[in-house]
Structure of Aspartate-semialdehyde dehydrogenase:
Amino acid sequence: MAVRVGVLGATGAVGQRLIQLLEPHPEFEIAALTASDSSAGKTYRQAAKWRVDSPIPSDVAEMTVTATDPDEVPNDVDLLFSSLPSSIGADVEPGFCEDGYVVSSNSSNGRMADDIPLVIPEVNADHLDLLEVQRDERGWDGAMVKNPNCSTITFVPTLAALAEYGLEKVHVSTLQAVSGAGYDGVSSMEIIDNAIPHIGSEEDKLETESRKLLGSFDGAELSHNEMNVSASCNRIPTIDGHLENVWVETEDDLTTEEAASAMEAYPSLDLRSSPDPLIHVFDEPDRPQPRMDRTLGDGMAIGAGGLQETPFGLQYNCLAHNTIRGAAGASVLNGELLLENGLL
Ligand code: 11C
């Protein structure tokens, strides 16, 4: 029988992607949708300005949206996917966990907390064991797992593939699509003919989240990876797909051939939303490109290319679909991992 799930923040950009990915899903059945108080009581069709690239699923269109409040969500819902803005998530997500719900959250609040697993299943599924620490420390009946920022998800799997060479220094420069800024970003035509070299706290997120993801958990404590990471983040006028330029200095020598083989061989998982292969390596010098490659693996795979050896280490580009692999799909995948691990 499918697990009953809810979507917190169901009308936003990532909320809509979540509904697209969950309807249908063989393991999850949508049973609750929440949004702001102004949407409460409306049908989903009335409340959402639907903008993703497939029609509103008919089962969802006539569901009634409720306020984002634990008292409004049925008790037999076991898993909540949260795409709430981070300030709202910080306020309300802990209340859901206290009330016994398991939350798979894309919201950036709490990602760096010591007892909250920040997980990309193919990279650090073992960090889910932190949930025992979380239960002891917070006394929640439910639980919270987070996925990282979309730009972090794009480059960290490629680093994980190279980790056996000893990661020392990483420089990453991003070219991020406007959908990362939510619907205001998509509808803002101000960015056409422009590139904006600063995106809020994005650089800090890439630097800190990557070290947490590639850190190790000894059963009691998580040690963050000690590699040095420097990020610069830029917004460009593409709709979907974050492209990133990466330079990696490793302890051991690393040729482009070895790097390409390690990325191609990097294992996927036997979860429904985990693509196989996880990383596609391109030989063409002008790939990956957002418009051509963001839908690799139904939007869940990562493209890499342009590998070359430089005085600053191995250089390459990588790309992922920011609202699928980088956000909604990442949360769904974490939900599948929780289910696989008997945590629902
Ligand atoms: C952007 N990556 O492109 C951001 C959006 O930490 O989940 C996602 C923010 C986050 O603007």
Observations:
- The longest helix spans residues 324-340.
- The pocket of (2R)-2-aminohexanedioic acid is lined by residues 108, 149-151, 176, 180-181, 199, 202, 205, 322 (CB under 6 Å).
- The domain at 3-149+327-340 is CATH 3.40.50.720 (Rossmann fold).
